[in-house]
Amino acid sequence: MVVCTLHTTIPTTTHLGFTQKNQVIFYNKRPCFKKTTSLNNNTIITTRPSYVITCAKDGTIVIGLAADSGCGKSTFMRRLTSVFGGAAEPPKGGNPDSNTLISDTTTVICLDDYHSLDRTGRKEKGVTALDPRANDFDLMYEQVKALKEGKAVEKPIYNHVSGLLDPPELIQPPKILVIEGLHPMYDSRVRDLLDFSIYLDISNEVKFAWKIQRDMAERGHSLESIKASIEARKPDFDAYIDPQKQYADAVIEVLPTQLIPDDDEGKVLRVKLIQKEGVKYFSPVYLFDEGSTISWIPCGRKLTCSYPGIQFAYGPDSYFDNEVTVIEMDGQFDRLDELIYVESHLSNLSTKFYGEVTQQMLKHQDFPGSNNGTGFFQTIVGLKIRDLYEQLSAAKSAAPATAAKA
């Protein structure tokens, strides 16, 4: 079944920013218009030039990605959208400062767009963007809910260049909606709309090293200003952002290496993929033997490893009182084409063919983290989300047929 949205080409909106619409339902590609009433009380049974139909097959699936600023959300989004195919680009003909990315299958919304205060307003009130008081969770909930139900919305735009709130943009319901930012799991109403959630958990040591690299090299900031910025944000991060990881279905945790004693450069990383057990349509990836506790050093004839080498670990654990499965990688790859050796020892990857993880990694070998566990586990999670989407879509398609037989 395909659910379509019928809306005017010049949208009229409610106070919540919804586009008024009528619903059209297609069975086996033959249109069967649901009986609806237009504004002038006439029943619409055929399309007219003043209307546009957009379709989201079996509704919209919503994925939440939470992380602090500068923790790799953008790179993860590029890896995720690549799994589904098609380039993710800003809305055509829209605001050049839009934060939204749209591909054939996915729409990625930056939750900064739901800031209720612009940069000046936050400064006047003495709050950071991490503070819930600087964000409109009511509007966030209503619009994510509307998109999940197949309704177009007029979403605000937060302009990162000017620090102002720009006029809204029209967002159509996609097959997969990704909401990424600081607060996708903060509000319980928004959290309940998520079909799957991920948290990027970067340790303070690694976060500091990354921020220095980005802000000093790319933005010309001084070391002192970077330290001050991190310290200023830390209380709000600890209070409002970090606690969200307890709700995540998957957590990618990035830590300093344990392979180099007293390492302070942050170039070699230890990365954990923490996967919650019992999540519908999601089977955790495992190494060698499901449920066992394993430590594996794969370097040798089949995997090139320079100092300090690579070490994997796998086993069951608990995380915020939830049963989880954890895979850990410490170290980095020298040759990505040899990654297929590691891939062949992992199960439940949800790949379409042998070597797909390696292919995806090679495809984006210039992305940050491609030689270590951050890129490796981001790619794996992307493939798991594709599998979850396909299972959810199949279940929703089967529901009408089951109901009809009953």
Automatic annotation (TrEMBL):
Sequence ranges assigned to domain Phosphoribulokinase/uridine kinase in this UniProt record: 62-260
EC number assigned by the record: 2.7.1.19
UniProt entry keywords in alphabetical sequence: ATP-binding, Calvin cycle, Chloroplast, Disulfide bond, Kinase, Nucleotide-binding, Photosynthesis, Plastid, Transferase, Transit peptide
Molecular function as annotated in GO: ATP binding; phosphoribulokinase activity; protein homodimerization activity
This protein's record includes keyword Transmembrane helix: no
Catalytic reaction list: D-ribulose 5-phosphate + ATP = D-ribulose 1,5-bisphosphate + ADP + H(+)
Subcellular location: Plastid, Chloroplast
Similarity comment: Belongs to the phosphoribulokinase family.
NCBIfam families found in the cross-reference section: PRK07429.1 (NF005655)
Protein name: Phosphoribulokinase
Native species: Saponaria officinalis
